[in-house]
């Protein structure tokens, strides 16, 4: 059962999400928060698998709530998905840097929302390749920041895997591209995350672009 925390200051939106999610046999909404401070407190109380967090909320915004959840070792199993009103806005990259595992547009199709929750619960990055390219092109290129850890700590194989993750490939797709087993691909991804201090695949995506390992329009490695 996937346990979900909803955090949005609009009760009507929370009610809509709750109705949709609760209708699924494998998803349970365990708590609702009306602001970021409540979201952090309820995350600690209920330890959900996924936290759907709105960017703009009173008391504490979604980005700061995400940062606090990501920084708390007790909440290491909580995957934060940011809810936005638009497909791409100025908050998305900040949210990913703060530790969000991806983002969803509030008016997304119900089936896509449900799939997104399941993807996030698995720990996969909730970012399509097309959205990733737009994100990096419009924000990383405009305000680059130095990569905090040198890529020299990665093996050549790990660098190749990180580049493919940044292109939006799944473990199975990485395995096919590199002609290795999915298990080996997953191991390479996990080791790269550990070495770079990345919380999840979404942060690997941001770090890969910010480091210059891949570029918005560059070819597959």
Task: List descriptors.
221 residues, 10 helices, 5 strands, globular, transcription regulation, transcription, Sig_transdc_resp-reg_receiver
Quick take:
49% of the residues lie in helices and 13% in strands. It has 221 residues and is α/β, with parallel strands linked by helices. Keywords: DNA-binding, Phosphoprotein, Transcription, Transcription regulation.
Biggest sheet: strands side by side, in what order?
A: 2-1-3-4-5
What would you call the shape?
Answer: globular
How big a fraction of the residues is strand? 5-15%
Counting DSSP E segments of at least 2 residues, the number of strands comes to 5
Order of helices and strands: EHEHEHEHEHHHHHH
Structural class: alpha/beta
**Assembly state (oligomeric):** single chain
- Estimate the mean pLDDT confidence: 83
> Major sheet: size, sense and barrel closure?
5 strands, parallel
How many helices in DSSP terms?
Answer: 10
- Percent of residues in helices comes to 40-55%
Could you tell me the radius of gyration in angstroms? 17 Å
Low-confidence stretches: none
Give the N-terminus to C-terminus distance in angstroms. Answer: 37 Å
